[in-house]
Amino acid sequence: MTTRDKVRIGSITKVFVATVVLQLVAEGRVDLDSPVRRVLPGLLPTRFADVTVAHLLNHTSGLPDHVGVPEPDTAEEVFRHRFDHWTPREWVATATHGPLKFAPGTRQEYRGINYVLAALIVDKVTGRPYGEAVTARILRPLDLAGTVVPGDDPRIHGRYVHGYLQMTDGSLRDITSCDQSSSRGEGDMVSTTSDVDRMLAALFSGELLPPELLQLMFTLPPDDVRMLDGSPARYSTGLQQATVNGVTLWGKTGETYGYKNAAFSTRDQRRRFVLAYHPTTARNGEESQTIARVADLLTRSPGAEDSATRA
User: pTM for this structure?
Assistant: First the structure.
């Protein structure tokens, strides 16, 4: 494995999508305070009228849980549903049953559906699939040749790392090819650790956004906005915050079957890491101790403050 081998990056996709949305804001083509129903008419019910674009980007929308979606508990069930295909409209419809879970902007709950809608906003505003906007605005300018928005293609092309799941009998089965339609805009991209590192460095250096909008990516909601479990909010616009050994890191984790990733940096980039590894158990949504151990090592290692670190 090398830093140029492709992997599925899961929710690190959100960093790319948030960056493009903020670029559109800078161009006056999107207003963060606009109701989503105004930008995407007919997609959300009227009772969701108060949900804005900003609420999507920092996970304070309060959208309901999905209804009628398979939730595999075993590797065998994952494989039974690996090629299930959803249109964006179908997927959004599964998260529009019932009332909002909380008034938009008053609580925070990390939800992929927020970025499915954000990608649809990019579609609507640019008049082309969000992947084309990501390619034109980020991938080509930064020469991220190993990064792909796959669309409906379930495969990874070129040199890549296979993902596997362990079956009940202990055998490993290749899960690399998998329909990503339910993760469109929130977790469907393919990249390399080298490309993700370049993206993070360019973003933090101000190459992609004007200062006032870049600052939003380092701004958490107000202190009275808490996660559903009562803990402090930890997601900004497109990024998440983690403080380890007194050092504040910003970045994103990403996960899909057979792949897990993390990309974090201090704002001054003196400590930065991109990590890709490959669990073989069906994901359970819990943060992995592997990422925590790497972050701990980076933030307490002698001399770590002297240079950027890549792993």
Answer: 0.94
